[in-house]
Amino acid sequence: MHRQSAVSTLPGILAVGEGVLAPGHLGELTKYVRFELVDAILEETGTVERRRRILPSRVGIYFVLALGLFPQLGYAKVWNKLVAGLTGLPVVTPSEKALRDLRRRLGAAPLKALFEVVAGPLAQPRTPGARYRQWRTVAFDGCSSIKVPDGERNYAWLGRVRHRLGITGYPTLRLMSLVETGTRGLLGAAFGPKRHGENHYARKLLHLLGDDSLVLADRGFDDGKFLLRPTTPAFLSRRHPSQTPASPTKPGEPTLIDRAYAVLRSEPGRRWGPRELAQAVNADNVHSYAVLLARWARNGLIHKPHTGVYMLLDEAAPAASPPTPPPLAPGTPQLQGTLAVLRSAPDYSWTPHEVASALGTANVNSLNAQMAKWARRGLIYQTRRGAYAAHSPDSPEQQPLTDLDAP
To answer: Which of the four, 127, 192, 261, 397, has the lowest number of CB atoms within 10 Å?
Structure first.
């Protein structure tokens, strides 16, 4: 749709749009969010009005920005701020419902696109406090006390916050921002439910960091998911006095994965835990090294038989498919059916999910808890975490089924 480009100039003040576009401005701040930029964003996101309205989309963008400048005021008073300096120009006085409908018609897409355009570093090379040597200094800053309107849609997304005295009156969200330290220029932001920690949202902003970035990170941001990224910028982080800083690998020295391979090959067939491997390779941060091991296992570099255990890929036996269980008569008790399934393949370690499939049981969690109880009573035994097998007929640990209900 054709956009009006003509402007009206108020004496000694500012230039605004003509006609119904006149309230669409931010005063002196309009030079940072120009009319041409807003119109281009509306065209790109497909939110330009199809017909000329009393409240055009451009006016809606500036109205929402003004709501952020005056968060303590209602819709009508914020509108009065926009039209206060338009003396002599014909301006409308919309109702709060009309302003609400305008905001809903715009949606979040144009505001998100506008933020992505204007957010960015502001410092010049010689701006005081913006650089350290060759790096541009940035920092993460979070807030978890932002309240949103009380509504079922917000509760479904953000959940209910419980305190000692009950549920809070308003749902809250967590906001994480990445800022330039010298100018406090906003580089990016992410927000969502409070059930996710600050690191969860900070990881969504790591793509905004360049090779010339130096992150001034507080304690808590020094975990492996930040520091072990392949394209991580420089980090300067606070640490506890008991922590030992990790020493970087020098050129010519074996990498962390090479050192892990050497340790795993030193004892073929052994299954290593994260702490054992970290001590064997002289890793300072066991938690960060455990994150690395899990990532290598996901990428297929090493084998993870089950939780917290690692070994070489060539030593890992291929996963065996579950044997075909025997047919069971309808109405067979759960214990007798489980024993029949386990005894059909004595050398195989059965998982509760496989046993439930053989028994036709839909509640796998209940069967899992029951099999753990039977293992504690010695009726079956646990071969590994989450897998079971039946005792051999000559095993002294096997108890008669008639004693199951005995006290």
So the answer is: 397
